């Protein structure tokens, strides 16, 4: 418990902290002379001064004190550094505790290695300025702010013996995702999950402004944190020894409380009556750029926003800045901290935890090392029987729900699979999972509630950011998951997925990082079936968004029916290092392929559906009807049926695309087709009428290099929608069967004169549709009761 | 002050509320028989039952009581309905108070109009199920949750006489943007701004789950709301008369407090010592689906998530459901509420405020009616002199800052222009604005602070969602603004801008909606100059994102220098109904065009820079070097200079694109070029090497229909980056001058043998670059000191 630390321990902690501060500043400034063995000269200074000093001393302080409690309590700790732009700090500590050298043996823990550490920072060919995949011990890039706490909770889930410390900068605390993440404490099960210790670091300033939480009265901040369900512990000041002492005491208090909460919950008192614990939060107030230059060019710097990046900006040019830098660096007394060979002194090293306990060596931060293959159940148990195509209907996501339920059962002991979603699991028809597990919930309950459970592994909160952040933290620490989301609103996390793809793309290039489970999206309640909600809920553009990113990471699947969805799900659920986007409907959808056919089709990713066209092995097609997505596939097949009836002489090929990246050239994406493959499917010179689920120009963007591109005509969503009938949606966007037939007639040269009449018949059907729905409010019977096999 | 309401007033309020509830339920269910003049039959029921009942009675209650205080206090009130999916409620009230008929005269306030009101709801050809642009009195689509409070604050800014009520559903309260928006109270100036009254409606459930804020102890919720800076007032229950009474009292208390806060602040006590007010918030707890069916098919419905959408789902098929519906509708006693002609009774009408005070008639919700032309200052006062191209450097955003400062001065009295940004105004080098106005700030201050001011019109908070929400609310109520943002992180608001573009696109089609000021983005600190931050801060894909949306709304500009940025800014700042995306750098950039030249160039949006190529009026070009964006323009011009030196016989045309949508076909976008125009610039058959600011395939997506597309070769950002030198960034992405020359050599047929040697020279320069930066950490002198005019 929180006894005062003995003086020699305080002295050691302070020495370690000074060493970390010294190395942090050194990384921003020094090309050479790392130990200041001679007076600094302009040649020792980097020509471009890049980095963030302001947050670094605070991060170093937290690191110093986490190391102490790790030593004293033999804790397994992962730290999420929210202000990860303070890369110099986290790198300095990794070097001090030896985990950097363990990861990068050429950066030795001596003078030569120190020179390298400093020189490489933010230097061409070196390491980035932020905490990044290259940084040992990290699962959290510090670039875009807002996600630290969600990542921390994701890491803590199903890791009962782990403590996740999470430093939250007061800048980050202003973001929406962070503000929402505080409520994640209502989802953390003290029995099966680890603990999260938020450390709100109020250094008072952002880039150029004070921060909100630093400028409200302490009593108001306490109310806020208590309102979030936490019990705040305050530490603050600018006197290092005082702060060391207070922070040590606060950490001890916090960890004692966490231990008590867990002990009590795990002692079997797990009834409904158990109170939701009030987890501690530490509020740490220290000056921005603490221990750095106080005043520069007559302006206050330490303790202000001016310390955010590089406090002394003209060190090479201005002798006074150079003098200030040298005085600053020497103020840490490096000769006490490092021996003549540049190795940390024994005093400094006495603060470093043992091997795997070091924060820079946390196995959780290299979560692929902990990943176990996911036991995806045999698809045979869930597949729907398909005797002939297009004669039966199933809701694809409901079928998938059965498989996910079994997967939940099969991972009940392992607890390494989670389903997350913004209050939409049942709406998306995956509710079979509730037969196997509950929805995580630690808040109050009522007798009418269903499926809420303290240990549930479905995570539902009306916050896409939190869903995404949880799953990122969960998968980066080596576990598996699926994010089920309304298609339109996954754009809410566009920027988060950007960052995650960047992380995975970079991590793939680092041999020491083991592959981690993919981040899987099931996008459903999609653009074509927003009967209830209309225009605001229609956006198929997430596919476009992710396809701008690294082809090594991104995968996009549009299974056209239930069995293909199962096959795609099997593939993505146990994949590694990808972001898999699966778009599939929840509404009744024709079953086109048996399980075996679906397997074969998904293995190819794209293929001719010979039974749907007029393929007889002798004729080249006059036209290719291509389709991707469940609704477009239905319309394309209906168009094929109309063509067969009305223009039987026409040779029609039907091609279905499951894996959108197959359309890319082979040199642009690992799944891309060679031109010969593409041409064999789509031809080089015949018209291709392509019914696509999303924005039509995406298909052009993928296929513009193909020989047949000039003949490619794509229909898709063009931002026309409201609350209306399903068929009206496709008519409004010219994706309907009648329009597709008209497109074929318009594009195939040399058709018989009868074709013009057929075209008019189609146009008439569209007109009939318009008046019918306005009268009846439902789709034409010929559409509503259509089936391929009729 | 809060005296008890007399009984007859309570009775009237309750009658009004019952009428609104009746009309809400009727919209979800009824095709006909709106007044229940005969027993309900299946034929009276809509074939598709779509809509959200659960939240409607709560919204109706709030509307009823807002009307009362509007009457009693003659208030100017705008209401933001966060749970706008409760469209039936807002539509019902608009019909009751006559504002619906005022807007849509064919929906009369009588039986025929009531039938129409009910029938059109969520019916093909009718009105959407959510609050939408079609809804009178609204600035807030209820589709995507999270933005209600930010919109409310945006509407209240600079509207000192306005009260903005904002209903926040407890589902929405879980989102990140909403969670962050609570802190907007630290930016609202009680002197110059209006008031925001949040009404947190805890009906306890989302689609399928309880809500967090309804399931924490009341004391914890109070702490949370106080922590946000508010003073909570609680109202709750399921007994209508009790709730009417309590809500009336709470509203009176809240409005008295607001009046007192404003009175005190406006009495001239505006010194720094003034305390930040604690604005009231009302917490309203009523059952979800209140007054609807209690139990359906044996399951509890009222007061549970099952009431979210359509409580009775099989009314046409199931006689028991039909019976329950009729009993439910009759429980409101419609014969007391409407006369035989279907007009609301006098008792009901007694609750309706006078003409323009009606919520459905608020002029602020049709803000274009209030818009004044923005006095954009003359560009001549800010333009940089350009004697010859490429000989001087300016930071474009800093030049723009001068203009914005003057605009701030010129709108000081009008107060109808705001600049918003996530703590980046100074970082983006617009800080000249602080000479004219301050940063809005009502929280505590310190002596070291700069530019903070209670009445400042720069809004800085580290929350892109709040910036976007404020500006949406501000512009939709008729005022002007600019959002300055790091390019990469504007993706944080992808989904918000989706919704805003949808809103504007729909509103443009409504004759009664006056055009509102555009939402303008200045995206800077862009992909090519993330020297400090590296890979995480690199994403030029927002342009791709918005170009998926309505071409009537979206505009994209990439001014290549300071003067073109001024011209673009002049154009967008006083435009209407657009989302203008302007991408421009903050780093020193060559001045290419004088102000006059810039005006001419921007008017065309794309044009030949004859002085940069070899145009002599006689030769067709052998190759076109095209460019868009400041850094690509510099590289393209450097490539043109290299070609002139090394291959002087080559006819090179340089084309610069400012307005990206010019590349689209004329039939796809109002700014699109006809093929003849495009071909005249880019040729039909010569190679075009295009240096583009963002993802290269975007240019293909825009230009794929052009005759010359097969010859188009685009370079741009392909997700390669880190903290490195500016020139290394372009080299990594093959956008550098040397690579562009190599591309030209590779594509122009029939070049002299010397071309191969030139190509090798270029390749050697790239190799030299690689080793140089790793040694020196800065760019090659030949690049760092290059200028066009040297």
TrEMBL record, chains A, B:
InterPro entries reported in the protein's UniProt record: Phosphoketolase (IPR023962), THDP-binding (IPR029061), Transketo_C/PFOR_II (IPR009014), Xul5P/Fru6P_PKetolase (IPR005593), Xul5P/Fru6P_PKetolase_C (IPR018969), Xul5P/Fru6P_PKetolase_CS (IPR019790), Xul5P/Fru6P_PKetolase_N (IPR018970), Xul5P/Fru6P_PKetolase_ThDP_BS (IPR019789)
Main EC class the enzyme belongs to: lyase
Keywords, comma-separated and alphabetical: Lyase, Thiamine pyrophosphate
Entry EC no(s): 4.1.2.-
SUPFAM superfamilies named among the record's database cross-references: Thiamin diphosphate-binding fold (THDP-binding)
Annotated ranges, domain Xylulose 5-phosphate/Fructose 6-phosphate phosphoketolase N-terminal: 8-369
Every Xylulose 5-phosphate/Fructose 6-phosphate phosphoketolase C-terminal domain range: 586-788
Source organism superkingdom: Bacteria
Pfam family, one: XFP_C
PROSITE patterns, sorted: PHOSPHOKETOLASE_1 (PS60002), PHOSPHOKETOLASE_2 (PS60003)
Cofactors demanded by this protein: thiamine diphosphate
Family: Belongs to the XFP family.
This protein's name: Probable phosphoketolase
Organism for this UniProt entry: Streptomyces beihaiensis
């Amino acid at each position: 418990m929180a006894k005062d630390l003995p003086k020699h321990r305080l002295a050691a902690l302070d020495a370690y902290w000074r060493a970390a501060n010294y190395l942090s500043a050194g990384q921003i400034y020094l090309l050479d002379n790392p130990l200041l063995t001679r007076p600094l000269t302009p040649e020792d200074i980097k020509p471009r001064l890049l980095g963030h000093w302001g947050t670094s001393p605070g991060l170093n302080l937290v690191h110093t004190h986490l190391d102490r409690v790790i030593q004293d309590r033999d804790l397994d700790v992962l730290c999420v550094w929210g202000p990860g732009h303070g890369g110099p700090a986290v790198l300095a500590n990794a070097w001090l505790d030896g985990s950097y050298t363990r990861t990068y043996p050429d950066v030795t823990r001596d003078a030569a290695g120190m020179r390298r550490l400093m020189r490489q920072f933010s230097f061409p060919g070196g390491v980035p300025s932020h905490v990044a995949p290259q940084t040992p011990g990290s699962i959290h890039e510090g670039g875009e702010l807002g996600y630290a706490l969600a990542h921390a909770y994701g890491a803590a889930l199903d890791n009962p013996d782990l403590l996740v410390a999470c430093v939250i900068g007061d800048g980050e605390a202003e973001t929406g995702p962070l503000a929402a993440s505080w409520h994640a404490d209502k989802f953390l099960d003290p029995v099966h999950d680890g603990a999260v210790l938020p450390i709100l670091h109020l250094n008072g300033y952002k880039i150029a402004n004070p921060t909100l939480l630093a400028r409200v009265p302490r009593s108001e901040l306490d109310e806020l944190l208590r309102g979030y369900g936490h019990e705040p512990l305050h530490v603050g000041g600018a006197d290092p020894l005082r702060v060391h002492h207070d922070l040590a005491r606060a950490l001890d208090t916090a960890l004692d409380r966490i231990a008590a909460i867990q002990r009590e919950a795990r002692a079997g008192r797990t009834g409904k009556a158990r109170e939701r614990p009030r987890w501690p939060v530490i509020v740490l107030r220290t000056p921005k750029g603490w221990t750095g230059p106080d005043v520069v060019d007559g302006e206050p710097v330490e303790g202000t926003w001016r310390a955010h990046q590089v406090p002394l900006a003209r060190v090479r040019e201005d002798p006074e800045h150079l003098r200030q830098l040298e005085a600053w660096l020497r103020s840490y007394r490096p000769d006490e901290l490092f021996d003549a060979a540049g190795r940390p002194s024994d005093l400094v090293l006495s603060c470093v935890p043992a091997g795997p306990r070091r924060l820079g060596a946390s196995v959780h931060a290299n979560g692929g090392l902990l990943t176990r293959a996911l036991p995806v159940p045999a698809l045979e148990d869930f597949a729907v029987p398909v005797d002939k195509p297009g004669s039966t209907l199933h809701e694809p996501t409901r079928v998938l729900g059965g498989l996910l339920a079994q997967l939940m059962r099969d991972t009940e002991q392992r607890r390494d699979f989670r389903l997350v979603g913004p209050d939409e699991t049942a709406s998306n028809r995956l509710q079979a999972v509730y037969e196997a597990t509950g929805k995580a919930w630690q808040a109050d309950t009522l007798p009418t509630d269903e499926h809420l459970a303290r240990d549930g592994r479905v995570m539902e909160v009306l916050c896409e950011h939190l869903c995404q952040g949880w799953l990122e933290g969960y998968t980066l620490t080596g576990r598996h998951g699926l994010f089920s989301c309304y298609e339109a609103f996954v754009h809410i996390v566009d920027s988060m997925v950007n960052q995650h793809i960047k992380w995975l793309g970079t991590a793939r290039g680092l041999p020491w990082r083991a592959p981690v489970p993919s981040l899987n999206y099931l996008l459903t309640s999609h653009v074509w079936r927003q009967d209830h909600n209309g225009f605001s809920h229609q956006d198929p553009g997430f596919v476009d968004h992710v396809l701008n990113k690294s082809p090594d990471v991104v995968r996009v699947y549009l299974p056209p029916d239930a069995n293909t969805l199962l096959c795609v799900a099997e593939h993505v659920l146990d994949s590694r290092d990808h972001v898999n986007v699966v778009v599939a409907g929840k509404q009744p959808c024709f079953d086109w392929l048996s399980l075996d056919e679906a397997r074969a089709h998904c293995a190819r990713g794209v293929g001719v559906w010979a039974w749907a066209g007029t393929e007889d092995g002798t004729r080249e097609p006059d036209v290719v009807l291509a389709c991707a997505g469940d609704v477009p596939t239905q319309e394309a097949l209906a168009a094929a049926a109309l063509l067969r009836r009305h223009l039987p002489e026409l040779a029609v090929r039907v091609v279905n695309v499951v894996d959108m990246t197959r359309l890319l050239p082979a040199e642009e994406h690992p799944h891309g087709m060679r031109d010969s493959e593409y041409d064999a499917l789509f031809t080089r010179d015949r018209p291709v009428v392509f019914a696509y689920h999303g924005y039509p120009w995406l298909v052009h963007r993928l296929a513009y290099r193909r020989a047949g591109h000039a003949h490619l005509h794509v229909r898709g969503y063009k931002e026309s929608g409201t609350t209306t009938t399903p068929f009206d949606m496709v008519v409004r966007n010219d994706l309907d069967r009648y329009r597709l037939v008209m497109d074929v007639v318009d594009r195939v040269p040399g058709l018989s004169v009868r074709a013009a009449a057929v075209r008019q018949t189609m146009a008439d059907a569209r007109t009939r549709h318009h008046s019918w729905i306005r009268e009846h409010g439902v789709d034409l019977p010929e559409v509503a009761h259509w089936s391929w096999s009729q």
